Amino acid sequence: MVVPFPPGGVADLTARPLAAALEPHLKQPVAVVNKPGAGGAVGMQFAAVSKPDGYTLLCALSSISVMPEVDSLFGRPQTYKTTDFAPIALLNADPTILVVRKEAPWNSVADLVADAKKRPNEIKYSSSGVYGTLHVAMAMFTHAAGIQMRHIPTAGGGPALTALLGGHVDAFAVGPSVVAAQLKAGTVKVLACWGAKRLASLPDIPTFIELGYPDVEFYIWAGLFAPKATPPEVVKILREATKKAANSAEFKKAMENLNTPVYYLDGPDFQKFWDKDANRLVKAIRAIGKVQ
């Protein structure tokens, strides 16, 4: 199971308990292999061109829809196409949250925006890479708010969190699972949520839509994919095994511990969800434009 990011991010935190839950149903070991680079494009390309025999899978995030559009934006050959993959199952889907360190001077989005307008490009935020999942969410916000913040890309959600906790950046957008421990410990604070409605686990945190940013909506989801040419009978086996794994008590407990409840959709329904989400992300990339 290829994870196109380093350990510690949403994809990795989802893949590892899923791999363990899959093993009894597939009756063989399921190894998780991290292949980070280029905002996830390296690992996704690797999976796209792998032998379509069911033995190489990809646990990817919503950024799988972003990279082909970015390639087109810059007029370069696409690293891969979304049509290179057969969706097996959606595993979880949470909106990102805007996180800052506990000691940060801002207690609301309004505070952050006002400060950013006074100090263009001085407030820094980390991400999982240029045009990666976490970068797109922040770019949507800064574009809508009319502010400029300095982007410090890293190789994934885990390193992006390390940059925040180490004081190298001031903020970042992240899936709740990645900062679950820090939220419990009170070492970070949350200013807003990118969802259409508030998170059940963070009922006091407003959405950007509530705060007057109607187009700032973004979800960080994790899904399982196989190369497109994988035979239908093999895809069927993988779908059935993944359904059992995703609904197992062990996997559900692992996700609950990360404040990320399971949101399972089987292949065909996942495809519909993916198409709708990809359309929203493509529009966002076109609005953001080229970022060097």
Characterise the protein shown here.
- It is a single chain.
- The chain is α/β, with parallel strands linked by helices.
- It has 10 helices and 11 strands.
- It starts with a strand and ends with a helix.
Can I get a quick summary?
The chain is an alpha/beta fold and 292 residues long. Helix content is 40%, strand content 18%.
Please give the largest β-sheet. 5 strands, mixed
Q: Cα distance, first to last residue?
A: 31 Å
| Poorly predicted sequence stretches spanning 5 or more consecutive residues | none
SSE succession: EHEHEHEEHEHEHEHEEHHEH
Strand order of the largest sheet: 7-6-8-5-9
Give the CA-based shape.
globular
- Number of helical segments with 4 or more residues: 10
Key features of this structure:
292 residues; alpha/beta; 5-stranded mixed β-sheet; 4-stranded antiparallel β-sheet; 11 strands; 40% helix
Question: What topology does this entry show?
Answer:
Blueprint: E1 2-3, H1 10-26, E2 33-34, H2 41-48, E3 58-61, H3 66-73, E4 85-95, E5 97-101, H4 109-118, E6 124-127, H5 133-145, E7 150-153, H6 157-165, E8 171-174, H7 180-185, E9 188-193, E10 219-227, H8 232-246, H9 249-257, E11 265-266, H10 267-288
Parallel strand pairs: 1-2, 6-7, 6-8
Antiparallel strand pairs: 3-10, 4-10, 4-11, 5-8, 5-9
